[in-house]
Design goal:
CATH superfamily of one domain: FAD/NAD(P)-binding domain
CATH topology of one domain: FAD/NAD(P)-binding domain
Strand content: 25-35%
Structural class: alpha/beta
Bound molecules: flavin-adenine dinucleotide
CATH class of one domain: Alpha Beta
Largest sheet: 7 strands, mixed
CATH architecture of one domain: 3-Layer(bba) Sandwich
Number of helices: 11
Shape: globular
Order of helices and strands: EHEEEEHEEEHHHEHEEEEHHEEEEHEHEH
Length: about 400
């Protein structure tokens, strides 16, 4: 087993695997070290072998044809032709113990009166609550948008920076607008990790990172000392702060205060025949114990249906979560065919985040160490890959 690499990436979510892909494509020997036993991080197509391999997404579920960096990776891997269009099913609200249409929470006259402000109201430097109440109206924000945004980022949305939520990006029109894969989005991390030039080691506890004249010495309990000329940290901010070695104190100080939101995800699978519920993309919860539920109905299966409920942390115990989710779906708990619990985490960005990133970037300037993740530009997979691409260009040349 070689312990000498051009590039070591720590973290095997899409940020880290993207960083590994970009360096491997430059012909650099690349090693990915992942602490858990599974690659993919927040991309997690939960597969139930006992249910004929039925899967449902426990984390990220949709990619769009505006995901240019992701599509470039899929092109490299020959996967673009294999994307599966998502069937169009709608979201509903879950409010006061009932499913309701999204439109039931809309105040149309207020929206019509406010929307022209979208052309001049600045987004940069404003919170989600402040910006979206301005461009859609206060009541629309309070009754609808607030809950829709919370459903997306699985955490309270009011104080989130508006600029980190949605950005217009060019679309690749020859690719379907919203897509997945026949075996779910875990197809992507699996294909990146399987290519030549990338070695992935899971279950790795990083014990030390020491800067050396020509790179870094990374020590893990399982692999011993590994040398690399370049290193990329692709882990949540708190983990990155803990891993940054001596000489990177300014970088550590810049990111030390960035928080993470915990999400308790419950995945439930049922036999199709047991459910009366019409096909739906998911539910946006209004003031409930869960933020959102995402179904697998976008890629229908003949025999099973799956749902991922993203619960607020510490509100319901596991048993109560199951009871609540079954009540929402309208089915008895005795009909559950498969279930799983997953802990997801997403960054809890706040105003002034861009300044922290600028401070980090200036501390990293000229160094052989990159830092990437879903906590730079925004939380989408494409936002994460945009950062991985720019860090890769910085470390290895554009
Ligand atoms: C419920 C949910 C739904 C979402 N839906 C969408 C969607 O539809 N579309 C979209 O574009 N995005 C979506 N996202 C966001 C997107 O999936 C994530 O932001 C993205 O996948 C995060 O990738 P990442 O690599 O930055 O972080 P992560 O996926 O968190 O990966 C970080 C990795 O680092 C590892 N790690 C942590 N600490 C260490 C350490 N010390 N040593 C080694 N390894 C370590 C972790 O185990 C993990 O594997 C969703 C996210 C969630 C949670």
């Amino acid at each position: 087993m070689s312990n000498d690499f051009d590039h070591i990436v720590i973290g095997a979510g899409i940020s880290g695997l993207g960083a590994a892909h970009f360096s491997a494509r430059r012909g650099l020997g690349t090693l990915v070290l992942e602490s858990s036993e599974r690659i993919g991080g927040c991309i997690n197509s939960q597969r139930f072998e006992t249910l004929s391999g039925f899967w449902t997404e426990a984390g990220g579920h949709t990619c769009f044809n505006s995901y240019g960096n992701l599509l470039s990776i899929l092109d490299d891997l020959g996967l673009t032709s294999q994307v599966q269009a998502k069937v169009k099913v709608g979201y509903s609200l879950w409010k006061d113990g009932q499913r309701r249409s999204i439109l039931s929470a809309l105040h149309p006259w207020e929206a019509i009166g406010s929307i022209p402000r979208i052309f001049w109201a600045p987004k940069a430097g404003r919170s989600v609550a402040d910006y979206y109440a301005t461009v859609f109206g206060r009541r629309n924000y309070r009754d609808l948008l607030r809950h829709a945004f919370q459903a997306v980022i699985c955490q309270p949305a009011d104080d989130y920076p508006a600029a980190a939520l949605f950005r217009r990006k060019p679309r690749r029109k020859e690719v379907v607008k919203a897509f997945t894969f026949a075996e779910g989005l875990s197809t992507i991390p699996a294909a990146i990790a399987a290519q030549e030039g990338i070695q992935v080691r899971t279950g790795q506890g990083i014990e030390a990172i020491e800067p050396q004249e020509d790179g870094f010495r990374v020590v893990t309990q399982e692999s011993g000392a590994i040398h690399c000329t370049h290193l990329t940290l692709a882990v949540p901010p708190n983990a990155a702060a803990a891993l940054l070695p001596t000489g990177f104190e300014e970088a550590r100080a810049a990111i030390a205060g960035i928080g993470m939101a915990e999400i308790e995800t419950l995945v439930l699978v049922f036999h199709t025949a047991d459910l009366d519920l019409l096909p739906l993309a998911g539910l946006i919860a209004v003031e409930d114990a869960f933020y959102s539920a995402v179904s697998r109905d976008f890629l229908p299966d003949e025999t099973h249906r799956g749902f991922a409920f993203h619960f607020r942390p510490g509100v319901l115990d596991p048993e109560a979560q199951v009871t609540h989710a079954c009540k929402v779906i309208g089915v008895g708990t005795d009909r559950i065919a498969g279930q799983a619990w997953i802990r997801n985490r997403l960054p809890a960005l706040r105003q002034g985040h861009e300044d922290l990133v600028r401070r980090l970037d200036s501390a990293l300037f000229g160094k052989r160490l990159g830092v990437t993740g879903n906590w730079f530009i925004g939380v989408s997979m494409e936002d994460a890959l945009t950062r991985s691409r720019s860090e890769s260009d910085r470390l290895f040349g554009a």
